[in-house]
């Protein structure tokens, strides 16, 4: 299942991110803001229970977060900006990191780091990566989350290509995807069209 967050604030910020003239500082700020807005949508179904709260006026029952604890997991490098931002909303969440880069020749993911919360099996996992292109990186990351015992996983991306969505639906039909936009296609180098370029390079200024 794919949810596209069509809110005008998200769409406006994403359009500015796409602009080749947007510099590193503004790109980073926008990526953080879009991540918060995506999290608002992705976490819409978090469980709440009614708990007693004493206000200055009276005591009554109000909703409080309950249910499974959360884990935010970033696919390095680019996913880091998303977890860094979203953890502000859910400060009790644990944060994991999966290091993957895409081989420029084969476009396949190459793993170089994996550090996950030891109790990931008991947590609801929100996996972050701004870009879902061929889907190879996200699919491999989800496989390693499942190998570690995770059973509840949502994938949060800023941009996705239909090719990447199809790969996740094929490999991991149980994983919901939340994106700010679903673009047209991939070019011959595996870049999303129209896209926003290389997310990692634009966040970290490495090009
Ligand atoms: O869906 P895919 O075809 O696998 O492509 C998407 C991946 O490519 C980018 O990472 P990159 O390899 O550039 O690494 P970086 O974040 O370290 O720059 C992006 O952040 C995703 O992880
Ligand atoms: O368009 C793309 C595809 C993969 N990775 C990116 O950063 N951008
Ligand atoms: Mg990159």
UniProtKB/TrEMBL annotation:
Protein name: Uracil phosphoribosyltransferase
Residue ranges annotated for the Phosphoribosyltransferase domain, each copy included: 4-206
Catalytically driven reaction(s): UMP + diphosphate = 5-phospho-alpha-D-ribose 1-diphosphate + uracil
Organism of origin: Deinococcus grandis
BP GO terms, sorted: UMP salvage; uracil salvage
Function text: Catalyzes the conversion of uracil and 5-phospho-alpha-D-ribose 1-diphosphate (PRPP) to UMP and diphosphate.
UniProt binding sites for uracil: 192, 197-199
Modulation of this protein's activity: Allosterically activated by GTP.
Binding site for 5-phospho-alpha-D-ribose 1-diphosphate: 77, 102, 129-137, 198
GO molecular function, one term: GTP binding
High-level lineage: Bacteria, Thermotogati, Deinococcota, Deinococci, Deinococcales
A Gene Ontology term for the protein's cellular component: cytoplasm
């Amino acid at each position: 299942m794919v949810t596209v967050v069509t809110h005008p604030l998200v769409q406006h910020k994403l359009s500015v991110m796409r602009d080749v003239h947007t510099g590193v500082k503004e790109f980073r700020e926008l990526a953080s803001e879009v991540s918060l807005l995506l999290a608002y949508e992705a976490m819409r179904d978090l469980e709440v229970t009614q708990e007693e709260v004493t206000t200055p006026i009276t005591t009554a029952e109000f909703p409080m977060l309950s249910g499974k604890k959360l884990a935010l997991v970033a696919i390095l490098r680019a996913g880091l900006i998303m977890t860094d931002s979203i953890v502000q909303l859910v400060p009790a969440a644990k944060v994991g990191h999966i290091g993957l880069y895409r081989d420029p020749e084969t476009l396949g993911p190459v793993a170089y780091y994996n550090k996950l919360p030891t109790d990931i099996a008991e947590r609801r996992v929100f996996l972050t990566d701004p870009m879902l292109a061929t889907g190879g990186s996200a699919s491999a990351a989800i496989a390693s989350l499942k190998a570690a015992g995770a059973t509840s996983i949502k994938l949060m991306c800023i941009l996705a290509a239909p090719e990447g969505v199809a790969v996740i639906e094929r490999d991991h039909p149980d994983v919901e995807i939340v994106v700010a936009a679903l673009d047209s296609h991939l070019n011959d180098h595996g870049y999303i069209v129209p896209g926003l370029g290389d997310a990692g390079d634009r966040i970290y200024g490495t090009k």
